[in-house]
Design goal:
405 residues, nine-stranded mixed beta sheet, three-stranded antiparallel beta sheet, 14 strands, 38% helix, globular
């Protein structure tokens, strides 16, 4: 399970927003719906997810009704605060959202749409394990208003999937993508590189397999070892090697070259799309600091600079809502300095970069050094934007330190 929730101030039991919150309804609004169920816990995952034997006091079949109760609470809270507006994006994440019946996902989406409305052309994404996507599931989701399926491919190489504790068969990715396309859904595939025992040739095979699917969007994330996970324990015991940073850098460069040659453009350090229209608008909303409400146990929300997060376990989450209480466990309101640091961290990873004028004043002089080191594009900096080079993307954390420390 995920680590502890952040420390923060107590959240009001009715979920109300502070009266002095600077609400701006012109800011885009998104909804994240967390489905915290998995058949098997992957060894690298530290998300707030639960297998069936960890669900004491909660049942999967009751989950849709419980989450709808939070949607109703959110409708009241945002309405009372004058913050109500239609959703630009909706994202079902997890966990494995498609472990629930497609009809349950449709019910939750219908409730959210009734409560808030959807802007014209809204993006509605469902994450899916390849083994759970059938033509019937894809059609039900499309009929409900889903526009996009994000399929957890991770790798096309069986021994790499085994190292990640992924249980799907590689061939099922192809059938899942075909089912989604046949239903008229846009398709993204997610990859992970740097797993124990994965070679550069293995990674190239996975990239080639992903490109052969002709999806609209590809995410490629370096494996990160999170404290408290099975993989972290295996590494600590010496059972598997620590990921090799140099090999992961080679894998990233290989991915960027192959994806660019296939017509994909990077728009965030770990994300590539065939066109601007096929970028993940939901993720961009996070990176740009828009407003969103996170529904479900452990989900985080952000409105007008206020952040809050829900209790973690599905049973505690259901108990709060059954008592007509907010499931929020804590809240915080970061100061201007913290918001600035977060903005630099997130926006510097985007292809557009961040304006030099938006950096902390004391750090603007560091841009020249980053250009000299080949980490920031010189021509873009002359135009007033800090934009990462390929080398800068490989060392993005170091760039952020130079721009914020």
């Amino acid at each position: 399970m995920a680590g502890p929730l952040p420390l923060g101030d107590p959240a009001p039991s009715d979920g109300r927003l502070p009266a002095d919150l600077p609400i701006d309804t012109s800011v885009p609004f998104s909804a994240y719906l967390h489905i915290p169920f998995c058949r098997v816990r992957c060894g690298y995952c530290d998300f707030n997810t639960y297998t069936s034997n960890e669900l004491r006091g909660a049942r999967q079949e009751d989950y849709a009704a419980t989450l709808v109760a939070e949607i109703e609470l959110a409708r009241r809270v945002l309405g009372d605060a004058g913050a109500l507006r239609p959703m630009d994006t909706v994202f079902f994440g997890g966990g494995t959202p498609t472990l629930l019946p497609a009809g349950d996902l449709a019910r939750m989406l219908g409730a959210a749409t009734s409560a808030f409305g959807l802007v014209d052309g809204a993006e509605v994404t469902v994450e899916a394990n390849p083994d759970t996507v059938t033509p019937e599931v894809a059609r039900t989701l499309a009929d409900a208003g889903v526009t996009r399926l994000s399929i957890g491919m991770q790798s096309a190489v069986p021994h790499v999937l085994a190292a990640l504790d992924r249980t799907h068969q590689p061939d099922n990715v192809r059938t899942a993508v075909a089912a989604a396309k046949d239903a008229g859904l846009a398709v993204s595939v997610d990859l992970i590189y740097g797993a124990p025992g994965e070679s550069l040739a293995d990674w190239e095979a996975s990239l080639d397999a992903a490109l052969a699917l002709e999806s609209d969007h590809i995410s490629a994330y370096a494996l990160i070892i999170e404290d408290g996970t099975k993989l972290a324990r295996q590494i600590r015991r010496g059972e598997v090697p620590t990921p090799d940073d140099d090999l992961q850098a080679d894998m990233y460069e290989l991915a960027d070259g192959k994806l660019a040659a296939a017509g994909f453009g990077w728009y965030e350090v770990s994300n590539w799309a065939r066109s601007e229209e096929q970028r993940s608008r939901h993720n961009v909303a996070y990176w740009r600091g828009s407003d969103w409400w996170g529904f479900g146990p452990g989900a985080h929300s952000h409105v007008a600079g206020l952040r809050w997060w829900n209790v973690k376990h599905p049973a505690a989450y259901a108990q709060r809502l059954a008592a007509s209480d907010s499931p929020a466990a804590g809240t915080e309101r970061p100061d201007a300095t913290a918001r600035m640091l977060e903005r630099v961290l997130l926006e510097s990873r985007l292809v557009e970069g961040i304006a030099v004028a938006d950096l902390p004043a004391a750090n603007r002089s560091n841009v020249a050094g980053l250009i000299a080191d080949g980490l920031v594009d010189a021509a873009s900096a002359v135009r007033g934007q800090v934009r990462l080079t390929l080398r800068g993307r490989l060392l993005a954390d170091a760039v952020v330190r130079q721009l914020t420390d």
